[in-house]
Specification:
88 residues; mainly beta; three-stranded antiparallel sheet; 1 helix; 6% helix; flat
Amino acid sequence: MLRKSRPVRRNPIGRETRQNEHTREGAGMEHISWPDFERVEIRVGTVTRVEPFPEARRPAYKVWADFGPEIGVKKSSARSRTSTGPKT
């Protein structure tokens, strides 16, 4: 008897995976080496402004974050998974 093949998709690094191959831990992601991790730049900023983003396909907010004098204020968007809404 022939078994049905599961759909094949490509993960973020281009490797083909079967649909049920991913687990909760790692979800198909591969680990990077320590030297590669050391090259990652991680910054902390302060959210200075948030506005509703009605043009987005899914409910989202426009977010402005200040990363200090070296980088300045950057604009991004974020989706909230809570149903509480913005604080007033």
